[in-house]
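so my prof wants the structure for this chain in the tokens format not the other one, which i didnt know existed until like an hour ago. anyway here's the sequence
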Amino acid sequence: MTNNLVNKTEKDFESIKHVDENGTEFWYARELMLMLEYSKWGNFIKVIDKAKESCKNGNMNVFDHFADVGKMIMIAFENSQISVKQCSF
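here's what i got, hopefully its the right format
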């Protein structure tokens, strides 16, 4: 059962992964929010803020792992780009 959950989770993360022009993997926070079954952005941003605080506490540069970006769809909204290292918290 655990292996099935790990495989499903890995496939879920891979399905929403993006790669920039430098080959760096990242995820959009709004896509992660839905995959992790958060229904409200306000609740999920608290999780992101805690992860950013963990970076600071670990003497890591937050900007190396989180980039505030805008994504154009029908309307523009706030989003965060999260690095591979931070997703493994």
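also thought this was worth mentioning. The mean pLDDT is 80.
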